[in-house]
């Protein structure tokens, strides 16, 4: 089973990561909460590559909604490829999308998910317009 991403999404980043022994739960597969960490790690890696280092000063991204569809179990050991896509740049937010595959099984999706990212002025704790450079990254 493959969850399709929106047609208008744009690929922006692949992140490679290893499943750690501690990522598993008592049933011997990756715990459901850890998939969100994989997506977060890919998102932060991408943001750092765009020139934005997420921090608590000034303005930056905040996740306001996220989801994950679990399609296949992942067990230790495994090397993952987290494919990240973006879409739907709005005034203050954009969408991120993820597909998690095993590096040794390309094209076989183990999980897919997404997150709505809101651009926030941290001091004011208020949404602000996406910076032009970020809008350009999302729109291509």
From TrEMBL:
CDD domains named among the record's database cross-references: 4HBT
Coiled coil spans: none
GO molecular-function terms, A-Z: hydrolase activity
Domain of life: Bacteria
Database matches in InterPro entries: 4-hydroxybenzoyl-CoA_TE, HotDog_dom_sf
EC number(s) on file: 3.1.2.-
Record key words, sorted: Hydrolase
Pfam family, one: 4HBT_2
Similarity field: Belongs to the 4-hydroxybenzoyl-CoA thioesterase family.
This protein's name: Acyl-CoA thioesterase
Organism: Comamonas sediminis
Lineage start: Bacteria, Pseudomonadati, Pseudomonadota, Betaproteobacteria, Burkholderiales
